[in-house]
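## retry 2 of 3
previous attempt timed out at serialization; input unchanged, resubmitting
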Amino acid sequence: MINKKGDGWMEYSNYERYYLEDTKRGHKLTLVSKDGSKLEINCVWPDRIRDHSGRVSTIKDCKDGTKSNDVNIDTSIKFDATQTKGKA
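## retry succeeded, writing output
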């Protein structure tokens, strides 16, 4: 795989297991190490939402009645991959 500018990687030492959970706005990945410590990563879609039946739609045309102004979208949060390079 070719790395592009902005790509990053991370090594999580003493990794034991992971959990992947669907959320209303994306997914939550939890990595658990042998000493019990956890790393949680919340992956949030910028313009999509999951309804009560689990279907994913763009916010403007959600079937569950959710309107785009009903959902707080924090666009100020930016991921900086350069901060995660190296060992955790």
